[in-house]
UniProtKB/TrEMBL annotation:
Name of this protein: Uncharacterized protein
Region entry Disordered, spans: 1-49
Residue spans of biased composition, Basic and acidic residues class: 1-11
Comp. bias intervals (Low complexity): 31-44
Compositional bias of kind Pro residues: 18-30
Organism: Sphingomonas panacisoli
Amino acid sequence: MAIAPDARENDAEALTEPPAPAVEPAPPAAEQPVAEPPAAVDPATSEQTNRAAAAAAVAAVVSADPNLVSTTVALPTDALEFLRSQSTKNGTSTGDELRRSIGTQKFLQDKLAEGATLQLRDAKGNLFDVKI
């Protein structure tokens, strides 16, 4: 079977790939935009941002549980550091740790009011009465 000359030309054109689109080279480094360095963090602004984020988090928790009421507490630095370390250790919030501490105190006070006594045993086995 013979192939017509113009059919071969059409086949050859069909087999050739279209020309690749022209790619524009990247501009030299001097012409590329330079990212601005991050602005210096103002500690006062950062503290305000942290407080705003904390307030938003508290609002979310309080709105999720109708039994919770938001309040502000002034604590000594060492007490706040303790709450923060406990919350990090336990994977909880400082509010959770504060509620836990108050709950423990309430439990102990209630039991003492019922006539119970509280004792601690030291490493040597000695018992000590604890007065709260």
